[in-house]
Design a protein that fits this description.
The radius of gyration is 20 Å and the shape is globular. Mean pLDDT is 86; it is low at 1-10. It has a six-stranded antiparallel β-sheet. Strands 3-8-5-6 form a four-stranded antiparallel β-sheet, with no helix packed on it. The chain is of the alpha+beta class and 304 residues long. The protein is 48% helix and 21% strand. Helix 5 runs antiparallel to helix 6 (221-228) and helix 8 (247-264) runs antiparallel to helix 9.
Length: 304
């Protein structure tokens, strides 16, 4: 329901000036919101990021081509973040006048990210790793976002496009929450990179390395506590600070993301289920649908 409502917002009442990347711009709270509609197939359309650029897909499908041979489908309910100076080229394989491909971008200044980094360092400190929040953004961030993030985007777009008595409050809190979610993704990515380089670097890198090595096996919280030399309450607090969730919820997310990667690599639904640490195919299918908005077989069809 939220997806169709957001798509309705994205196409209503905007003049068509061009058929590829027809841009409608809104500005408020030192942030630019642009909504792009494309009405015909196109290839290698260039996008340059002058600021930190958050992109959210609404309808249709894009294929992104970037630095370092980066190549990926970009689908609804996904986020893609570019750093200042980044360039991508975009294909529009499905766009038509009757079913346009639509996405939004939100441009944030580096100062806004610095302020959020400083707030996180003060309010969500990570043991043994005080500078993790300074790692964002240094590279592309492409992730399947949660339904909560999708609902947040819907509220932000509604506030930009329509406005109401609470517009300023919605934008102020909504944009900060979106920044927080984005920074946490970068924080997790930074620590995972550190864990691959040296798992003993901090208590959390030891825990994250163990999780990555054992997604296909049962993972006990007591084992994670021993690795981190933390009590259960302290471990839960550190995961809340880092990822905004409990350790078990984080493990569940990583298993779903691993399954998604395995499906993209050509494994069958059953193989991806088992190799990502799920033991029940029906349970896996339900969790996958809740997280990604499509069952595994539908996801395969959409990606391919």
């Amino acid at each position: 329901m939220a997806m169709s409502h957001l798509a309705l917002i994205s196409t209503a009442g905007r003049p068509v000036r061009q058929l590829v990347e027809n841009r409608t711009l809104y500005e408020s709270h030192n942030v630019d919101l642009a909504i792009y509609d494309t009405y015909e197939q196109a290839q290698r359309v260039r996008l340059d990021a002058e600021q930190v650029l958050y992109c959210g897909m609404l309808t249709g499908k894009k294929v992104l081509h970037g630095k370092g041979d980066y190549h990926s489908a970009f689908l609804p309910n996904e986020s893609f973040v570019m750093s200042p100076g980044d360039v991508v080229e975009i294909d529009f394989p499905e766009a038509t006048e009757q079913a346009p491909t639509t996405c939004l971008t939100l441009a944030f200044s580096p100062r806004q990210l610095t302020q959020m980094s400083e707030r996180l360092e003060q309010q969500a400190p990570l043991l043994g790793q005080q500078d993790v929040w300074q790692h964002a953004p240094s590279d592309y961030l492409h992730t399947r976002h949660s339904q909560a993030t999708q609902n947040l985007l819907m509220r932000i777009v509604e506030a930009f496009v329509h406005g109401d008595n609470d517009r300023d409050l919605v934008l102020n809190f909504g944009l900060n929450e979106l920044l927080l979610r984005m920074m946490r993704h970068y924080g997790v990515n930074a620590l995972q990179t550190m864990a691959r380089q040296n798992r003993e670097q901090t208590p959390l890198t030891a825990v994250l390395a163990h999780i990555e090595d054992n997604l296909h096996n049962p993972i006990a919280i007591d084992t994670l506590c021993k690795l981190a030399c933390m009590s259960r309450s302290k471990l839960y607090q550190q995961f809340a600070n880092l990822a905004g969730c409990s350790p078990m919820e984080f493990i569940q997310r990583r298993r779903l993301e691993r399954a998604r990667t395995l499906l993209q690599s050509g494994q069958s639904v059953t193989q991806a289920c088992m190799n990502a640490g799920f033991v029940n195919l029906a349970h896996f299918t339900r969790r996958f649908h809740l997280h990604f908005g499509a069952c595994p077989s539908q996801f395969l069809l959409r990606v391919n």
